[in-house]
Write a structure and sequence with these properties.
alpha+beta, Cytochrome Bc1 Complex, Chain A, domain 1, 2 domains, 5-stranded mixed sheet
């Protein structure tokens, strides 16, 4: 068999072929056929998340997500589950700080039913008080699971501390008192404000009948009110802080963070490369120094998290109490060296290849592609193709990475969160001062 020396356009996902339809109510439909597949994924993205809640209804977005699976005017919760299982489909949802996503995946012949179930849930939920009382216990148990998780406590503790004056710093699940008192009317009020056409995107990728899909979405989601609440966030102001959470855990979980840039800032791409070099990979400076050379921690890494108007650059580690001081000191010293001396060309080259591979391989498959389409359209109003992503990464220089690192890693703005058998605030601030002198 002869070796093929060219790439057939049908061999890969081509995001430049996306068809975009805007309904009269502002709802955006994104369609990307992929006839290599025998299935499709439908994802619906709603601009409803923690940062768009009020303090008195914190957790309402997540509560709604749960309640939409409890039944509609024509389907009970059991009907939703049995109809989905009956076609071998997958149906799920999740809530974040800035949006809620509902998604379904099924074989191509069953996509109309899967889509109908999904749209029915969003447009005709019963939201009965009896179901609310049942699900309330489930959510309170979920909060209990979060309270037993060091990683969740660490992340939420950090957010609540550095963004204390913004709902962005609030827990996605809400609090026990608020969830215990929440009513169906609060859910309906929130949905009326934020489950609107102008704040919703529906993305479909895979093998599907285009006309049937458009007709189902138009006749159901097209009935949503356009809404007058724009999907615009108020910037959360960063507060330098030290947050200590006492728990009887075997390890101490540490997080250091710096205020960072939003997802619209051009610096986010060089910063992503810096993150990989810093602690985002097994060859990173922090992993090699803290774990491989010194053996001070099993888990250590970094992350760069951009949001609509702001972001955080974080370093986290899980250490034994006897190694806490040494590990924190070495992390700070390594960060200081990294910013002072800069990254190398080899490190940037390696990180760029890692970043390209992670993004491109992560987009393979209908679910990932539909996610990329819907999330990008909702948050940014545009969808980058794979070639555009690669071109952007390839254009990043060593100077770009060093400039981004020196702009973000400002030790005068460092915040610390610790969970476990913690020391006092002076202990942590003292280590910081000694390490960066």
């Amino acid at each position: 068999m002869a070796r093929r020396e060219f790439h057939d356009p049908g061999d890969f996902m081509d995001f430049s072929l996306i068809e975009k339809i805007v309904l009269p109510n502002g709802l955006r439909i994104l369609l990307l056929p992929d006839n290599r597949s025998r299935s499709a994924c439908v994802s619906i993205w709603v601009g409803s998340g923690t940062r768009f809640e009020a303090l008195e209804n914190n957790g309402v977005s997540h509560y709604i997500e749960h309640m939409l699976f409890k039944g509609t005017e024509k389907r009970s919760a059991r009907d939703i589950a049995e109809q989905t299982d009956g076609i071998g489909g997958q149906l799920n949802a999740y809530t974040t700080k800035e949006y809620t996503c509902y998604y379904a995946r099924a074989l191509d012949s069953h996509i109309p039913l899967a889509l109908d179930v999904l749209c029915d849930m969003l447009t005709c939920p019963t939201l009965s008080q009896a179901d609310m009382d049942t699900e309330r216990g489930v959510i309170l148990d979920e909060i209990g699971m979060y309270e037993d998780s060091p990683d969740d406590l660490l992340l939420d503790g950090m957010y609540a501390s550095v963004w204390k004056d913004s709902m962005l710093g609030s827990n996605i699940l809400g609090t026990r008192p608020i969830i215990s008192a929440m009513t169906a009317d609060q859910l309906r009020s929130h949905m009326a404000q934020q489950y609107t056409g102008s704040r919703t995107v529906c993305a479909v990728c895979g093998r599907f009948d285009r006309d049937i899909v458009v007709d189902i979405i138009s006749s159901s989601l097209g009935r949503l009110p356009k809404g007058n609440c724009s999907y615009i966030a108020q910037k959360a102001e960063y507060n330098k802080s030290i947050k200590l959470i006492e728990r009887d855990f075997e390890q101490i979980h540490l997080a250091l963070c710096f205020p960072s840039v939003s997802q619209e800032d051009e610096i986010r791409n060089p910063l992503a490369i810096f993150n990989s070099i810093c602690g985002g990979s097994s060859s990173s400076r922090l992993f090699q120094r803290i774990r491989e050379e010194l053996g001070l921690a099993y888990a250590v890494g970094s992350s760069s998290t951009p949001y609509l108007k702001e972001g955080l650059f974080e370093i986290d580690a899980a250490v034994s109490p006897e190694n806490e001081g040494a590990a924190l000191h070495e992390i700070l010293c390594e960060m200081n060296r990294l910013v002072r001396d800069g990254v190398t060309a080899d490190e940037v080259s390696r990180a760029k290849e890692q970043m390209k591979a992670s993004i491109i391989m992560g987009l393979e498959g209908n679910s990932a592609a539909a996610g990329h389409m819907g999330r990008s359209e909702l948050l940014k109003g545009r969808i980058r193709t794979e070639d555009q992503i690669i071109e952007t990464i390839d254009a990043i220089t060593v100077d770009d990475v060093n400039d981004a690192a020196r702009m973000i890693v400002d030790f005068n703005k460092i915040s610390i969160c610790a969970v476990g058998k913690v020391s006092d605030a002076n202990y942590y601030s003292g280590i910081v001062q000694k390490a960066i002198i």
